[in-house]
């Protein structure tokens, strides 16, 4: 195996696959990155068993020659070391050569590194996934869907299935739901193309967070294939595999109230900032609970109280306030994350009394629904 | 006490004094910031006993009215909380009022915070330092002097005096020396104005690092007053006090060799990058040692070897190479820090054999001298 490649292309590819490599793995070869050189280009693979990322760097792209391949072959190199070496090489021309089995030379300018590689045959195979059951979502929309739901997954492992986001295809919609049993985030997305086969999976929150980091904010299509054990996201020379969580995801539709007693429409950003301020004092008591109270004349009040330190109160003018008066307490963190997911638009909050879950939506559409359970303090 | 102030001015002042406040203090009132309101303006004081920072925000600056003072007075407010509250207030107008003893109200827009303050009388007094023994250094030069020496202080407390930088006025020069007994950094600076009185102090490295962060990169003068217990830096509405380290600083002048056997002149930046690359492999063995070898024809070689992982070697063309051939090993970290202090200029390195300390200087001037003890591997 011997090839010369432009350093910045190699670095960009490494940057993606490094996201899958964990230093804490129990499988020694997974501390490495697999490099496969064919006549078409170089593919790099990194994995921590849960997530596997493969990027392909083509020999030529848009008429530009990115590499010169002398002989093909495969090797596994220690990931962190290889990445740091490439990052610090003195020139943009990098020559990589494997001789005598696994002895690897990395040359650039007058600098020569010699690394002891590992046999690529030892590296785990990628899962085989047939592409006939795929559907497509633009990358930027996929990133939004992830951001609007993944924060609500459970961080505790007491019910492992809740640490993932449930992706469920029903009729012509993809419904994504996350809940930690204190709050819930739901995002519905119309699909233009419907897959057959597996229609209900639970994707680990950690995998979705990594996918969100790696995806470009573009309208380029991402192909998605769901199987019983794995989900595969395919974008622009990149394959992202994640294992799925086992177990049945709970039916959350019955949690969402159908009748409401108090409806408030207000500017989400103003409320977010007021809650942020109120939470400064709430945080000190560890429970992070703020109070929300309807007043006369389209005003509400947000307040918080810490006996040791002090208190804060703030009134906010709302666009509309209908129904019964209300005093309710909730987690500032949950409310802030829900408001960030709806992203500063005009928000409607619908309450069913101080003891019942309440929901937040944009007034403009129904795609995103956030539900929060109140805390009993009144 | 009651005044209204523009939030951005209050924040800038808080930002400075917060650098002196530690959450780990054993003196409860030092978790607070002291606010003193006079008719001339507001002064803020923060301290962790080692460092005390006081900033003064004048009521009026360059014809701009920064605050309106209704009544004067003093209060101590919990530092982290007060800082976060001011940071998150909704408008640029902040009203602060103390009523009924220590009950403090912070109002901005429709937001009102109520904090329980502490009696300012409980806050430690600033040390009294007479200003008749001061000398002056421009802020940007003072920052350079700190950066070029402070990295070489000892991190271990086994000889506490070595955790500071020795500032010594001799004839018309300020000589700053730091050493951890494996390497040494020395910076000489001509003074235009000479103080009488105390001429030899040891300033804790931590204090100098904080001072460097807080000083602006400008040519504005900083006045420096050295006493037996404290050093005071005065700049533009800011007072920075540091305690001094006790004990005699060792005489380091005899460590510096007087005769050299090998002299190399080269580009400091190229060497820095080559050492950085070589240290990638050296680091794995924990000792971080790289080798340096003179070759024929104005070439040197930097190399490193880690039996488990591999090796690296790199040749560098130098500007001049005189004297005996040399193979020497040293800490990559020390060499990189020394080269960064000399800052990429043409560097002369002077060796007295593989077992003796060697020195680095700029070829252009003698102000900065860096000394490194080699590691015995050959």
What's the gist of this structure?
Two copies of one chain form a homodimer. Chain A is of the alpha+beta class.
Characterization of the model:
- Two copies of one chain form a homodimer.
- Chain A has helices at residues 7-17, 79-88, 139-149, 205-214, 268-282, 332-342; strands at 2-6, 32-37, 41-47, 51-58, 60-61, 64-65, 67-71, 73-78, 93-99, 103-108, 111-116, 134-138, 164-170, 173-179, 183-190, 200-204, 221-226, 230-235, 238-243, 262-267, 289-294, 299-306, 310-317, 320-323, 327-331, 346-351, 358-362, 368-372.
- The model of chain A has no long low-confidence stretch (mean pLDDT 93).
- The longest helix of chain A is centred in the last third of the chain and has 15 residues, at 268-282.
- In chain A, the strands form five sheets. The first copy, chain A, has a nine-stranded antiparallel β-sheet with strand order 16-13-14-15-28-27-26-20-24. The first copy, chain A, has an eight-stranded antiparallel β-sheet with strand order 8-2-3-4-19-18-17-12. A five-stranded antiparallel β-sheet of chain A has the order 7-1-9-10-11.
- The first copy, chain A, has three domains: 2-122, DNA Polymerase III, subunit A, domain 2 (DNA Polymerase III, Chain A, domain 2, Roll); 131-253, DNA Polymerase III, subunit A, domain 2 (DNA Polymerase III, Chain A, domain 2), CATH 3.10.150.10; 259-372, Proliferating Cell Nuclear Antigen.
- Chain A is built from six helices and 28 strands.
- The first copy, chain A, is an alpha+beta fold and 378 residues long.
- Strand 11 (111-116) of chain A pairs antiparallel with strand 23 of chain B, so a sheet runs across the interface.
